[in-house]
Amino acid sequence: MSSPRVILASSSPRRRELLGQAGVTFEVIVSGCDETPVPGETPQQMVERLALDKAATVADAHHDALVIGADTTVFIDGRALGKPESEAEANSMLATIAGRTHQVWGGIAIVSRGRKLSQVWSHVTEVTMAPMDSAVIARYVASGEPMDKAGAYAIQGLGLQFVESISGSYSNVVGLNISALMQRLEKLLR
């Protein structure tokens, strides 16, 4: 029996890189799902719903494939910090997390219509940031790196210099808990 086709339903270059580093042969098909939070959702509910929506949307058009969907969001003070829409918003997000601990929630889904398979789960990683003054934040925002990252920082890039500690999966903070995904995917690819 040949290995099933694997599709990553994400445009994230970080997720593509993590999956590629794990040795998975896959293609990318972006779902285009609406990622608007639903009022009253918990962080876990939100990332699991979005991961499942992304995977299910692509799986509907590709019945033969195992489709992986993922979502990552930063939470602090009961609110989600998505991708900043402006430099001012990036500055505000970084000022909010500076010197504090926040949570990074990552949802993962695997859907295959042909196998009648639908799995979704999530992980949380605690990240403690170093104190940052407004000048340091402004320099980092000027680098452009924060602009397409949840919480306005990239742990795998320049943003690493601000991370004092993490408790949980590093790759979850990057965008995909690759260890947890591979444990499930290995069973499905046998």
Annotation keywords:
single chain, about 190 residues, alpha/beta, seven-stranded mixed sheet, elongated
Layout: helices, strands, pairs:
Layout: E1 6-8, H1 13-21, E2 27-28, H2 43-61, E3 66-76, E4 79-81, H3 87-97, E5 101-112, E6 117-129, H4 134-142, E7 163-167, H5 170-174, H6 178-189
Parallel strand pairs: 1-2, 1-3
Antiparallel strand pairs: 3-4, 3-5, 5-6, 6-7
Report on the structure:
The chain is of the alpha/beta class and 190 residues long. It is built from six helices and seven strands, in the order E-H-E-H-E-E-H-E-E-H-E-H-H. Strands 1, 2, 3, 4, 5, 6 and 7 form a seven-stranded mixed sheet that branches. Helix 3 packs across helix 4.
Task: Give a brief description.
With 190 residues, this protein is α/β, with parallel strands linked by helices. Helices cover 34% and strands 26% of the residues.
| Biggest sheet features | 7 strands, mixed
Distance between the termini: 9 Å
What's the order of the H and E elements? EHEHEEHEEHEHH
Estimate the mean pLDDT confidence: 95
Low-confidence parts lasting 5 or more residues at pLDDT below 50?
none
Strand content: 25-35%
* General shape: elongated
The percent range for helix content is 25-40%
Q: Give the number of helices.
A: 6
Question: What would you call the structural class?
Answer: alpha/beta
Count of DSSP strands = 7
What Rg is obtained from the alpha carbons, in whole angstroms? Answer: 17 Å
